From TrEMBL:
Gene3D superfamilies: Vaccinia Virus protein VP39. CDD domains: AdoMet_MTases. InterPro entries: Methyltransf_11, SAM-dependent_MTases_sf. Residues 49-131 form the Methyltransferase type domain. It comes from Actinokineospora fastidiosa. GO terms for molecular function: S-adenosylmethionine-dependent methyltransferase activity. This is Methyltransferase type 11 domain-containing protein.
Length: 253
């Protein structure tokens, strides 16, 4: 399946994203990403594009705390809060027409990541800033272990590695940004998410289904049943299911 079709399928409704974002209520020493992004925009005046805006939490934060900015939310999916539907690889904006852009946890969905970054460079005026958040390559390794153990239990054979879309563009991909931006800085975070609610973990795992090409012959509902039993066992034993969140935020000028 091509990447654009995969994104449209995955975000046809908001429930997949809500299941994933919902677990962050259990993040230790929480990182308030909308506040981090707003702080990186402190010297910006004028127009700010929020591409891949999703349900609009960054746009809402900026509108509440920076009413002087003109925030323009856009998203590929009609189910999200964008004021226009747009693909990050072909933005309906004039060259140098915005003072900054947010691309928060979305560049890994772009059909062509270098083209998306070049397109963002095109619409941001010289001297403007791109703020982009993404995950580490080693984000939530517990999901890979759950996948491997559950599929092995189900089929008796080791499965192919879990396809994790966010690994298409990670905090280690500064060089891809440097092809378009002279200055690229990244701040990295590591925060455990300690989840006491098995249903929340299972909803998270189930939410990545639409982003995947399943190995031939694998029955997703059978996989979820086995994975759910493992999650429940871990929570009964340890009180929580741990996901080690590793992520970061780029500021590019
Ligand atoms: C993980 S969500 C992030 C939402 C929001 N930025 C946030 O941080 O809460 C990714 C969003 O990117 C959008 N998206 C996926 N592919 C896209 C593309 N090629 N162009 C624009 N938006 C895209 C999805 O529809 C979804 O709303």
């Amino acid at each position: 399946m091509d990447q654009r079709a995969r994104s449209l399928r995955q975000y046809a409704a908001r429930d997949n994203l809500a299941a994933r974002q919902g677990v962050y209520r259990w993040q230790e020493d929480p990182v308030d990403l909308p506040a981090v992004a707003a702080d990186l925009l402190r010297d910006v005046r004028g127009a700010v594009l929020d591409i891949g805006c999703g349900p609009g939490r960054h746009t809402a934060h900026l509108r509440a705390h920076r009413p002087d900015l003109r925030v323009i939310p856009m998203d590929l999916s009609a189910s999200m809060a964008g004021e226009a539907r747009a693909d990050v690889c072909a933005l309906p904006l004039r060259t140098a027409s915005v003072d900054a852009a947010l691309a928060m946890h979305m560049l890994y969905h772009a059909p062509d990541i270098p083209a998306a970054i070049a397109e963002l460079r095109r619409v941001i005026r010289p001297g403007g800033v791109l703020v982009a958040a993404t995950n580490g390559h080693d984000d939530k390794p517990e999901l890979d272990a759950l996948w491997t153990d559950s599929v092995r239990e189900l089929t008796g054979a080791p499965p192919p590695p879990l396809f994790r879309e966010p690994r298409r563009f990670t905090v280690d991909d500064g060089p891809v940004l440097r092809a378009a931006f002279a200055e690229v800085e990244v701040v990295r975070y590591e925060r455990p998410v300690l989840i006491p609610d098995a249903d929340a973990v299972i909803a998270y795992v189930d939410s990545i289904r639409d982003g995947m090409d399943l190995p031939a012959g694998l029955d997703w509902s059978a996989f979820i049943e086995v994975a759910a039993a493992r999650v429940r066992h871990t929570i009964a034993r340890d009180g929580v299911f741990r996901l080690t969140g590793r992520f970061g935020v780029f500021a590019c000028r």
